[in-house]
UniProtKB/TrEMBL annotation:
Its EC number is 3.5.4.16. Pathway: Cofactor biosynthesis; 7,8-dihydroneopterin triphosphate biosynthesis; 7,8-dihydroneopterin triphosphate from GTP: step 1/1. It comes from the Bacteria. The keyword Signal does not apply. This is GTP cyclohydrolase FolE2. Keywords: Hydrolase. InterPro entries: GTP_cyclohydrolase_FolE2 (IPR022838), GTP_cyclohydrolase_FolE2/MptA (IPR003801). It comes from Dokdonella immobilis. Converts GTP to 7,8-dihydroneopterin triphosphate. Belongs to the GTP cyclohydrolase IV family. The gene is folE2. The lineage of its organism: Bacteria, Pseudomonadati, Pseudomonadota, Gammaproteobacteria, Lysobacterales. One of its GO terms (biological process) is tetrahydrofolate biosynthetic process.
Length: 317
């Protein structure tokens, strides 16, 4: 029987070898699309787990070193994100570990965590409820001991065109004049029947599914206010898309659309006002996009908080 001595083998480390003919500092080096589960605190004290994709990077400040220790980044990501809830504090510790494991190579680190966050939402009028998925991106960085992070999400909503609504009302008025001329006495029952008919309400305004993308920089916090941010945007817009829908829910949704006619400019200003009023948000960037049913193109509007040195309209197009 042959036995193998329990001795450590010296293995080549090509990444540590200098390549004098191909030297240079690099802004960022690392890995994209790392698959890992993330755990977040739910709205009722529970922990929600979601599959995520992570990008982990450090800079390479030494021109004479060929590469970084990518396996160290991967193992740090796996250990931190798999074992504890995702919070600003946990990301700060993770980035600190990135830099400590590359102390001789790097002085900047960053991470991006991308996942879908599922939330159960009640119907507008019935007793039903259903799941909605919100895409979330959390970016964090560390440089010279300074930690910064931002949160981005997207909310889908319905937008009904104010111009189209006005044009539809005009057509309805004209039809009313044609069907109930000034010389014809009005019969309340006949008018009610007319209002409930397709012949009477002969035009409807165009509406469409629309998208609100919001990116925020937050003051120091212990948790990521994902649900709070989503609620803030949905409450500002008033017409978020629905999940479980019975007829009474659809009617309530139609009422909300009629009460909240908006161009993309209106939607952007609604969100701008709501985000401006939240003291946790130190800066923001937003985009309202109406995926027009009238046109083959989209109507879009951008807004920022206007912080000096902060986001601009072109920050994340």
């Amino acid at each position: 029987m042959t036995t193998t001595p329990n001795t450590a083998r010296v293995m080549p480390d090509i990444a540590a070898e200098a390549d004098a003919g191909n030297a240079g500092r690099l802004d960022w080096v690392g890995m994209d699309e790392i698959a890992v589960p993330v755990r977040l605190a739910g709205g009722h004290g529970d922990i929600v787990q979601s599959p995520a994709r992570v990008a982990a990077h450090v800079n390479l400040k030494r021109a004479d070193v060929r590469g970084i220790h990518m396996s160290r980044l991967y193992l740090h990501v796996d250990r931190h994100l798999s074992s504890e809830p995702l919070t600003p504090c946990s990301l700060r510790r993770l980035l600190r570990d990135f830099l400590e494991s590359h102390a001789d190579l790097s002085d900047r680190a960053r991470i991006s965590v991308r996942f879908d966050h599922m939330v159960r939402r009640p119907a507008l009028a019935s007793d039903n409820s259903g799941w909605k998925t919100y895409p979330v991106v959390i970016n964090a960085s560390m440089q010279d001991g300074a930690f910064a992070f931002e949160l981005e999400t997207e909310v889908l909503y319905s937008s009904t065109c104010p111009c189209s609504a006005a044009l539809a009302r005009q057509l309805i008025q004209e039809q009313f004049e044609a069907d109930f001329g000034k010389d014809r006495p009005l019969d309340r029952g006949a008018v009610l029947e007319w209002l409930g008919s397709e012949a009477g309400i002969r035009a409807t305004p165009h509406s469409q599914r629309s998208s609100a993308r919001v990116r925020v920089r937050l003051a120091s916090a212990f948790e990521f206010p994902i649900i709070d941010l989503i609620d803030l945007v949905e409450n500002a817009l008033q017409t978020p898309v629905q999940t479980a829908v019975k007829r009474e829910d659809e009617q309530a949704f139609a009422l909300l659309n009629g009460q909240n006619l908006m161009f993309c400019e209106d939607a952007a200003r609604r969100m701008q006002r709501a985000l401006d009023g939240d003291e946790r948000i130190v800066d923001f960037w937003l985009r309202a996009a109406h995926l027009e049913s009238l046109h083959p193109h989209d109507a879009v509007a951008y807004a920022t908080k206007g912080v000096e040195g902060g986001y601009t309209a072109d920050s994340a197009r």
